[in-house]
Design a protein that fits this description.
By secondary structure, the protein is of the alpha+beta class. It has five helices and 16 strands. Keywords: Cell cycle, Cell division.
Length: about 230
Amino acid sequence: MLWLWQITQTDNFHNLLCITFVFMSNIHTLQKILTAGFDNGYGSLKLLVDGFEVVRAPSYITNVEMENVPGRVVFNGTAYTVGESAFRTGNYFDRNTDNNENKVNNALLTLFGALAHLPHREAWHLKLVVSLHDVGLADELQKVLNGEYQPILAGKQSDVKIEVLKVVLEGMGALFGHKLPKKLTILDFGNGTTLNTCVTASLELKILSRMATIIRNNTAPKGDPTNKML
């Protein structure tokens, strides 16, 4: 069992990157399925793909013409740039923080932009855990992300398949980073939201067990004895 999680810090506040629960023992390293965690934050996007460095970039999108810089995406015939290069254009960009719906509506483009910061792959098959400030929007977010696409990432075409395994509340990663008391309140200070979550030890175990089962059932090869539903 491999637990991937990352905490980033901005202006003395700890901002949860994303926690991804990954059952890896039965996945051969040569398989194309990659487990990943994604947070399309108001201030910055964060992507952690197993085997790659963490991508953290400003949640900015621009249509300004530019070269194939990291974060450059061509999708459905339209070119976008996501991240630092978009920010440097000046005022010619859209931000997640400009509209509460952008964290959902922009999620696919910002995920492509994050992938365009990583070394090129001809195929990305992502089993994804996503964090969101309002899990009531989880179904809508999954509809936006799930699917098979053929974007051009930083000048090179890739086949991208996205399967969202779970949408979790922002701040949930703190549950697994430290030994916890019986009762705990988690405060997540973000760029556009401040969230508090009250957690008990029994709830933590339920979340842990359920998440591990979801990941295992979606990553273990067919016929593997661990590939069972509860």
